[in-house]
Specification:
Elements: H1 3-39, H2 51-83, H3 92-96, H4 98-126, E1 132-138, E2 145-156, E3 161-166, E4 180-185, E5 189-191, E6 209-213, E7 219-227, H5 229-232, E8 236-241, E9 253-256, E10 260-262
Antiparallel strand pairs: 1-2, 1-5, 2-3, 2-7, 3-4, 6-7, 6-10, 7-8, 8-9
Length: about 270
C-alpha cells in the first residue's frame, strides 16, 4: 500500500464530503421554494415570474450532485477493493459479492438523494394519524375522481400507504351505508389546513379554482373562489361550486377555510 494510494482515497473522501454539503445547500433552497409556492401559489401566474424555472434548475443541480456522489462512492469502493488482500479461499465469497454491494449502495444512495425532503414528507404523513383529510377514491366511472373527508387510521412508512376510514359514506354505497376503510397512496391524500391556525392555510385569490367540502356533506367538489376570508374579514371562503346551479345561476356558498384545499392537477369530476 503506497502513500499515493492513501492520498487518492483521502482526496475522493473529501470530494464525497463536498458533494454531500452541496446537496444539503441545494435541498435547503428547494425547501424554501416549496414553502414560497405553497404560501403564494398565485405568484407563478404573474408575468415575468421565474419561480418554476428556478425550481427546475435546483432539481437538476440536485440530480447532478447525486449522480456525482454515486460515481465517487463507486470509485472509493474500487480503490479499497484493490488494496484489500485476496484472503484465504474461504473468504472469496466476500469479493464475489462486491458488485452486489455496489448495487446495494447505489440503491441506498438513490434513497439518500431524496431523504431530507422525503423524510420530512413521511413524518408529516405519519403525524396525520387521527386527523381528517381529503382523500381521492376512484369511482366506478374511471373518468371520475371522487373526493371525501376521511379519517386517517394508520400510515405505513414502508409501503407509504394510508389506511383511512370513510365514517359517513353516502346512502348509495353498497352495503347499506356502513363505514368503509380504504388503503390509499400518498398521492391520493390532501391534508386540510389546521382549524386553529388560519395562517397555515394557502390564500387562494378570487377566481382561483379549488377543491372544497360542499356544505352539509363530507364530499369535496371543484369550486371557484368568489371572495377569500381576508377580504370578507371572516374565516370563510365565498365559493361557487361547479354544477350547483339554482334557478339558472350558481349560488355563492360560505365554506370554512379549513375545508378548502388546492385543486389537484389533472382533477376529473
Amino acid at each position: 500500500m503506497s502513500a499515493a494510494d492513501i492520498s487518492g482515497i483521502l482526496e475522493n473522501s473529501r470530494e464525497l464530503d463536498r458533494l454531500r454539503k452541496d446537496q444539503e445547500e441545494v435541498l435547503l433552497e428547494i425547501n424554501k421554494m416549496h414553502k414560497k409556492l405553497q404560501a403564494t401559489p398565485e405568484v407563478v401566474e404573474k408575468p415575468g415570474d421565474t419561480s418554476l424555472s428556478r425550481l427546475k434548475n435546483l432539481y437538476t443541480q440536485a440530480k447532478d450532485l447525486s449522480e456525482s456522489e454515486v460515481n465517487v462512492s463507486n470509485l472509493l469502493l474500487s480503490q479499497l477493493d484493490g488494496l484489500l488482500p485476496p484472503g484465504p479461499p474461504g473468504q472469496q465469497r466476500r469479493r464475489i459479492g462486491t458488485e452486489q454491494r455496489k448495487k446495494r449502495m447505489k440503491a441506498e444512495s438513490d434513497i439518500s438523494r431524496l431523504s431530507p425532503s422525503m423524510r420530512n414528507q413521511i413524518e408529516a404523513c405519519a403525524s396525520l394519524k387521527g386527523e381528517q383529510v381529503a382523500a381521492r377514491v376512484t369511482g366506478n366511472n374511471a373518468e371520475k375522481d371522487e373526493w371525501f373527508v376521511v379519517k386517517v387510521m394508520q400510515f405505513d412508512r414502508e409501503t407509504k400507504e394510508f389506511e383511512v376510514l370513510d365514517e359517513e359514506p353516502g346512502d348509495d354505497e353498497d352495503g347499506g351505508g356502513g363505514q368503509r376503510k380504504y388503503k390509499l397512496p400518498m398521492s391520493c391524500i390532501i391534508p386540510f389546513p389546521k382549524k386553529t391556525d388560519p395562517s397555515s392555510a394557502p390564500d387562494f385569490p378570487s377566481g382561483r379554482h379549488v377543491l372544497a367540502v360542499y356544505p352539509g356533506t363530507t364530499a369535496l367538489y371543484k369550486a371557484t373562489v368568489v371572495s377569500p376570508p381576508r377580504k370578507r374579514k371572516t374565516d370563510e371562503y365565498l365559493l361557487e361550486f361547479d354544477d350547483d346551479e339554482e334557478d339558472g345561476a350558481l349560488p355563492q356558498r360560505a365554506v370554512p377555510f379549513y375545508n378548502v384545499v388546492a385543486l389537484p392537477e389533472g382533477h376529473r369530476q
